[in-house]
Design a protein that fits this description.
- Helix content is 33%, strand content 22%.
- By secondary structure, the chain is of the alpha/beta class.
- It folds into two domains: 171 residues, NAD(P)-binding Rossmann-like Domain (Rossmann fold, 3-Layer(aba) Sandwich); 221 residues, 2-Layer Sandwich (Dihydrodipicolinate Reductase, domain 2).
- The strands form three sheets. Strands 8, 9, 12, 13, 14, 15, 16, 17, 18 and 19 form a ten-stranded mixed beta sheet that branches.
- The N terminus is likely disordered.
- The structure holds nicotinamide-adenine-dinucleotide.
- The site of nicotinamide-adenine-dinucleotide (NAD) has 24 residues, from loops.
- Nicotinamide-adenine-dinucleotide binds next to loops.
Length: 432
């Protein structure tokens, strides 16, 4: 498709009631996981969303997801790991919602101007998140933004500020929050099974992108102005969301960060290098955490690491009465059991139903459902933009701490007093 703006026909007209008309910006590698979630919603009888428009940088990339038999052939999943959402198989929207043919666009402004959607799901590279979100909010659309919320804390603050007072739902797609293991662990902590949180450890070194592969085959992930940071941001927001959700607010971060692999590559099946990307961002961090409630902890992560990966066996949270070790609760009084099983047996049925409507377990389905419910009920989403902004500030606190070589308070990153690492990003995006 030529650089000129183009749209291929489909849904139009404002739905007064009926399903939420969703516009998706980014025919991204993560899109199949969201489409699988939509299909799971439908299969569970929770039918409240239709994809009315799909926008990508190139029109044919959007068309590739529209209708079976139309457009270019599907791309194989970028991850071979079935537990990774990037391993979700290709889906056509015609198979998910045979009753709706989405319009295809190569310009989100045109999609917004055509007024064919009520809400926008932002799956674009991180450096575009705030631009798409700000345009969508200005057009009166609700917005759900893939994590991380934005390319810098200032960009995230701009989104939160634009949302304020508009009566629109702005959420971050922090899928970890909707996972069964997270729900069970949070319930166990809230129910006092391990007492007051005292110590936290989580981490891993190496994964399928280690030691030097272009992560998710997306060169933008290695460019500071497009991604914000490396693993500290891309994975860090997930990790810090989980930590905050289970332990409570993080007051201070002290971190070491490095880039072990200055070049990342793609290899063909025979192992020959077929593409090279200069890696400008971090690929390893070690962060010490001080929590507002008095607990302390450590989180580390790397997608460098030669030899083979090592994963700490799930997070460990120690409290005054026992611990949560991976997915298991172990108490001083002898109680021991998987958090998910204790949750299934002991949590109030109303809570279990509210967290897993229709018995759904697919976290992408659950977060899309929560987005639609929040819009219908006129309330903030559980993973609101404010939550996403705190995750982002905590993740950037890792990079800021390493840059200024001292512990930093999350509050001073959140309000912009500490932004030495991010200054270049903010200047590039006109956010300074
Ligand atoms: N929750 C998770 O586990 C998870 C996993 C992977 C990715 N993600 C997030 O999903 C988002 C996308 O990541 P990805 O790896 O799928 O990216 P990707 O590079 O595969 O896809 C980006 C998409 O954005 C589109 N795009 C780029 N510029 C555009 C423009 N100017 N206008 C319209 N569309 C444009 C591209 O056409 C492409 O379809 C990121 O925010 C990432 O952090 C989340």
């Amino acid at each position: 498709m030529a650089a000129a703006t183009a749209a291929a026909g489909g849904a139009s007209g404002k739905a007064a009631s009926g399903p939420l008309r969703l516009g998706i910006v980014g025919a991204a590698r993560i899109l199949p996981a969201h489409l699988r979630g939509l299909k799971a919603l439908l299969d569970a009888g929770l039918d409240g969303i239709r994809v009315a428009a799909l926008c990508a940088r190139r029109l044919e990339d959007a068309v590739a997801f529209r209708r079976r038999g139309e457009g270019p052939p599907p791309r194989a999943p970028v991850s071979a790991n079935p537990d990774d959402p990037l391993g979700a198989p290709h889906l056509w929207l015609s198979d998910v919602h045979p009753d709706t043919l989405p319009a295809a666009y190569d310009d989100w402004r045109r999609m917004l101007a055509d007024d064919v959607v009520d809400a926008v799901l932002v799956l674009a590279p991180v450096g575009l998140h705030h631009r798409v979100a700000l345009d969508a909010l200005a057009a009166g659309k609700h917005v759900l933004i893939e994590k991380p919320l934005a390319v810098s804390v200032a960009a995230g603050r701009a989104i939160a500020a634009a949302a304020a007072g508009r009566g629109l739902v702005v959420g971050v797609a922090e899928v970890l929050r909707y996972a069964e293991a997270t729900r069970a662990a949070r319930w166990a902590v809230e129910a006092g099974l391990i007492g007051e949180p005292q110590l936290w450890v989580s981490g891993g070194i190496g994964n399928e992108w280690s030691p030097d592969r272009i992560v998710a085959d997306t060169p933008w992930r290695h460019r500071k102005r497009e991604a914000g940071g490396g693993g500290a941001i891309d994975v860090g927001v997930h990790l810090f969301h989980l930590v905050r959700h289970l332990v409570g607010p993080i007051a201070e971060v002290s971190a070491y960060v490095t880039t072990m692999e200055p070049e990342r590559v793609r290899r063909d099946a025979a192992g020959a290098v077929v593409a090279r990307v200069r890696n400008e961002v971090d690929d390893a961090f070690f962060a010490n955490l001080r929590f507002a409630g008095g607990a302390i902890g450590t989180t580390f992560w790397s997608w460098a690491g030669r030899g083979e990966p090592v994963a700490f066996p799930g997070p460990a949270l120690y409290g005054t009465a026992g611990c949560l070790k991976g997915d298991e609760v172990v108490r001083d009084d002898g109680l021991r059991g998987r958090a998910a099983e204790l949750f299934a047996r002991q949590a109030p049925p109303a809570r279990r139903h509210a967290l897993f409507p229709g018995g759904l377990r697919d976290p992408f389905a659950l977060q899309l459902h929560e987005f639609a419910r929040a819009i219908a009920e006129g309330r903030p989403m559980e993973t609101s933009a404010e939550e996403g902004l705190i995750d982002l500030a905590t993740a950037f606190a890792v990079l800021e701490s390493a840059t200024v070589n001292r512990p930093v308070a999350v509050a001073e990153v959140l309000d912009g007093r500490v932004a030495a690492y991010q200054a270049e990003i903010d200047a590039h995006h006109g956010l300074a």
